[in-house]
Specification:
Order of helices and strands of chain A: EHEHHEHEHHHHHEEEEHEHHEHHEE
Largest sheet of chain A: 10 strands, mixed
CATH class of the largest domain in chain A: Alpha Beta
Largest interface: A-B, 63 and 62 residues
CATH topology of the largest domain in chain A: Peroxisomal Thiolase, Chain A, domain 1
CATH architecture of the largest domain in chain A: 3-Layer(aba) Sandwich
Number of domains of chain A: 2
Oligomer: homodimer
Number of helices of chain A: 14
Structural class of chain A: alpha/beta
């Protein structure tokens, strides 16, 4: 698989009360297209990743809506898979190119969440959850707290290792002008923050966010050198049960493992070939699971590695993870997240990220999850053709 | 393009108050898979077409939800494009197969609408509409009444020609045991029915419906003769402005014309090669536009043709249209409609439809629209390889 990424763009993530979803989409689409040297009328398909516009805004048909806003009559599709909507939109766009039917494709992920009360957003997000869990009154912090407790008991880690994920990602966020939170934090600050769902504290949780990200994907045969392309060499998705109660294990996400296995095979690489990764840290525990399910660490060992600084930008011995700040610090506008992850890795592989540039970054990975692991999508990107 | 359709199934359409969306999906998925000789674990991708589950039910992540219900961990995606969601799900599934990444794919379209008050559904459906039209208080009957009035003025037809579409489709519905309305009606009855949005009367409008449909698509190389395949030879989509006020013409849908042009080219055929078609008759006027935009009739002439019986099953001189009963009589569970259209054409091309079998049906077409023409998707199917 060789799909050229020829343009990328992200908006600032955060509480963007004065900006409409249309304006966000237009902003990132124009910039990503400009990087590719394309006009809106040049694209031959348009994919939108979004989860909550229907539930929170009563608006659907986002493909056509944003196509009109951008100025294209290309076929347009909304792809939804909870918090993995953005990654799944990219996956489907790649299939569209590999099919031969589309050659120049725009993908936009977008979400507008902060116009609504946090309680409304929490309920809306449970639209990704299982019926039994919804009836039981569980929310996503509750679900991930069950995972965290099980993991901590099984692998004998403390809340410090979880907190270290938030500290690392806030440090990275402090170097990202688009991040929602640009304030470095300490382990003490995480441990002292209010409890949300024991053992997860406020600073273990990603925020509610607005934002949009865009990528332009181009068929290999049409990519020109001056577009400075980065290549997608693997793209795979998998599903698992919606509810935790149907899982064999709470300390692994089978969907992540399955998607990663396929993506590595497609790219012909191993986990230790990855230099930089954006993984789905909706809660700190989720990053630990991801680091292990993606094959970077053995089960139960990633917490110590994060605490020891192994995954921090440029002090990393092995791999730099969530240099954007991740969902935790960069923010988590759910439909945008999977697209933003690809934007970050493309910028890392281009090598122009300044203060948060990972040295010698040649191969990168993105990992986007929907629900509490009901769906996962993994992309592998490479500098070299 | 040669994609094998190896299994199809539809539920009854109508007011299915005692059946859940899960049960509907399981019912059609099991039957379509059984026709293909496949188990749920044999499929390698799963596409769901649905529009309103988020707005009306607060439930998203339908790919994972229904994957769990069916019993597969294959990658699963929800594709949304208003009332074209089902057709767009099939289109994306086809791209998935053409990409080479997926070989045996299940597509389900599903919608559950009658659990809600009609007023709520009307508002929810405007989730496919433009902001300006929503603010102005327009609903879809209102939008299509503007189109109907403009068409009637331009081409000097009366309400009789519109009514003839409903009469034809109710006659077809009377032969379809899955149709929501199986009662034949007369032109007088349509003209006497209550006005919804002048000139459209109650019997010019498709109903609010529940239902699900499924198709199994198989890569050409894996299709066996005993699967009795029908072939998809064209699949194309296009978009247009969301609102009517941005259109050059109200009496044509540019998205239909663009999608049809591409699909005919892919299949290497002309409109007059089509023997049987399912077109998007959400309102009677919509069928007249479709008949002309798809190239079956010259602009302004299709109303007389319908009135003269040219498109009625087996009295047709040219082409039989909406033998399922169409959206008007078979029902319009929006996310299911585009899939049901393909189910109907596959069954027609197989030649076993009994009373509503079109004689010598070799080539068929489906036409699915979202919004008031903001998106259209056209499929061409053929008996012969």
């Amino acid at each position: 698989m060789k799909i050229g990424v020829t343009g990328v763009a992200s908006s600032k993530f955060g509480e963007l009360w004065s900006v409409s979803p249309r304006a966000l989409v237009k902003y990132v689409a124009e910039r990503a297209l400009a990087e590719s040297g394309l006009e809106p009328t040049d694209i031959d398909a348009f994919y939108v990743g979004n989860m909550l516009s229907g539930i929170l805004g009563g608006q659907e048909n986002l493909g056509s809506l944003f196509a009109e806003e951008i100025g294209t009559t290309a076929p347009a599709f909304k792809i939804e898979g909870a918090c993995a909507s953005g990654g799944l939109a990219i996956h489907n766009a790649i299939l569209g190119i590999l099919s031969g039917q589309y050659k120049k494709v725009l993908v936009v992920g977008v979400e507008k969440m902060t116009d609504h009360k946090p309680e409304e957003v929490t309920v809306a997000l449970m639209g990704a959850g299982s019926e039994a869990e919804r009836i039981a009154g569980l929310t996503f912090p509750g679900l991930y707290s069950l995972i965290a407790r099980e993991y901590m008991d099984k692998y004998k880690i403390s809340e410090k290792e979880l907190a270290a994920v938030a500290v690392k990602n806030h440090y990275h966020g402090s170097l990202n002008p688009n991040a929602q939170f640009q304030n470095p934090i300490t382990i003490e600050k995480v441990l002292e923050s209010p409890c949300v769902a024991d053992p997860l504290k406020l600073l273990d949780c990603s925020p509610i966010s607005d934002g949009a990200s865009a990528v332009v994907l181009t068929a290999e045969s049409l990519v020109s050198k001056k577009q400075n392309p980065i290549w997608i060499t693997g793209s795979a998705a998998a599903t698992d049960s919606l509810g935790l109660y149907n899982r064999k294990s709470l300390t692994s996400l089978a969907a992540t493992q399955a998607a990663a296995k396929t993506a590595y095979q497609q790219a012909g690489i191993q986990p230790n070939d990855i230099d930089v990764a954006e993984v789905h840290d909706c809660f700190t525990i989720a990053e630990l699971l991801a680091l292990e399910d993606l094959g970077f660490y053995k089960k139960g060992t990633s917490g110590k590695a994060v605490l020891g600084g192994e995954l921090t930008l440029n002090s990393s011995k092995k791999i730099a993870v969530n240099t954007s700040g991740g969902l935790k610090a960069c923010g988590h506008p759910v439909g945008a997240t999977g697209v933003k992850q690809v934007v970050e890795i493309v910028e890392q592989l281009r090598g122009n990220l300044g203060k948060r540039q990972v040295k010698n970054a040649n191969v990168g990975l993105t990992h986007n999850v929907g629900g509490s692991g009901a769906v996962a999508v993994v992309h592998i990107l490479s500098q070299e053709h």
